[in-house]
Amino acid sequence: xxxxxxxxxxxxxxxxIVNRNPSDLSDVIGEYASADRQQTLDAxxxxxxxxxxxxxxxxxxxxxxxxxAGSEILARKEELGRLLSxxxxxxxxxGMGEVVRAGNIFKYFAGECLRQHGEVxxxxxxxxxxxxxxxxxxxxxxxxxxxxPIAIPAWxxxxxxxxxxxxxxxxxxxxxASSWALAxxxxxxxxxxxxxxxxxxxxxxxxxxxxxxxxxxxxFTGSQDTGKKVAAACLGSGSKFQLEMGGKNxxxxxxxxxxxxxxxxxxxxxxxxxxxRCTASSRLVVTAGIHDAFVEAMVSRLKTLKVGHxxxxxxxxxxxxxxxxxxxDLDYVGIATAEGGLLAYGGERLQAEKDGxxxxxxxxxxxxNQMRINREEVFxxxxxxxxxADFEEALTIANDxxxxxxxxxxxxxxxxxxxxxxxxxxxxxxxxxxxxxxDYHVPFGGRKGSSYGPREQGRYAAEFYTxxxxxxxxx
Length: 475
Hints:
Elements: E1 4-6, E2 9-11, E3 15-21, E4 24-34, H1 37-55, H2 59-75, H3 77-88, H4 92-114, E5 119-122, E6 128-136, E7 139-143, H5 151-162, E8 166-170, H6 176-189, E9 196-198, H7 203-211, E10 217-221, H8 224-237, E11 240-244, E12 250-253, H9 259-271, E13 283-287, H10 288-302, H11 323-338, E14 342-345, E15 349-350, E16 358-359, E17 362-367, E18 382-388, H12 391-399, E19 406-410, H13 414-423, E20 428-431, E21 451-452, H14 462-465, E22 466-474
Parallel strand pairs: 7-8, 7-10, 8-9, 10-11, 12-13, 12-19, 13-18, 17-18, 19-20
Antiparallel strand pairs: 1-2, 3-4, 5-6, 6-22, 11-21, 14-17, 15-16
Helix pairs in contact: 1-7, 2-4, 2-6, 3-4, 3-6, 4-5, 9-10
Pfam families: Aldedh
Protein name: Aldehyde dehydrogenase family protein
InterPro entries: Ald_DH/histidinol_DH (IPR016161), Ald_DH_C (IPR016163), Ald_DH_CS_CYS (IPR016160), Ald_DH_CS_GLU (IPR029510), Ald_DH_N (IPR016162), Aldehyde_DH_dom (IPR015590)
């Protein structure tokens, strides 16, 4: 059994999480220790004890550890990518790409240890100097989702450690292997005992303890419903919190769009990574003049995609992560057609050589923006088409959503692209690009129901993982 990492020691548990390959349910990746409440409390206590000494380490010490971790992740990209694809289901090329991103994130934040920022100002009062500096929060709880099992933990853990915080990390129970591998790398890279703790287990036990322990900060990525619970718990305890809670992202296609480019952007954004991305373009908002040609081209392109085993190099789309997610995806297809949508392609469970959670990518046409398929996040290979008259209606529909993570447009008009970029009610905007696919050195986050709190990634990560101190010094 793969153990939890608590206070620098690998600790077993009475119960295990059985990790199965969604491409082949007979393939058991391993059994991973499921932490109980007491072990979670032990991890928190270890982090609290270790936090002051870690905060006092030199930037060079933190750089060396994070850089070593990043180097090992990159050196093992094929091995770790294969492990990731086995447990989460994204195809091998995507799994390896995610591992490379995680390695680059650790390298970037290793550099951030040395790229320190502060201010020295004159007071408005004579003879007084003002120093503005940043200090670590203290102990940060990190709760990560299953859809990016090494990249999302990396973009939370790396800045937390870089800015001098101790960490208690709870990964999603369905994907413990990538998180365990990351914990093992950090442990061997030299993170001191108690500074980084891994507690695998259920939200009912591990998550509940983290939310009610009065930690200095909680960084959460997951569903809106769970995010609201995180917020309520943190408000009650006074913990600083950061939430990323998904999206219902539009990709607008205007009449003047390059049709091939628009189709590829839609295919990539809606269906790659099995559509299990918070940045997926699940609403395709298409103007009337190009609508029919776009739908026809989409169906033709979908017919060329192979759904299959994640490790089969001929597969374009892997399986859905588990049985519950598969059923949710199929249910939403049924809901959409019951409300009047037309299933132009896919939307069925597929049988493969190995028993797994396979589904054909679904394209639903004839929808309007008030249908459930266009209001609620499906989180699978399902996209709907909304036909509109012109740019202004497309923009209105794009913004008419409780979410606001990312918004995209395909057009050859610089004027309309600029208007869209300025008027889109989203944290990120893509022009002639898929809505999914972001860089690790720039801020990530949205508006409205998608996000709460400071942005993640890049130098903006300091806004969450540090607190500002203003000191007045008399000369």
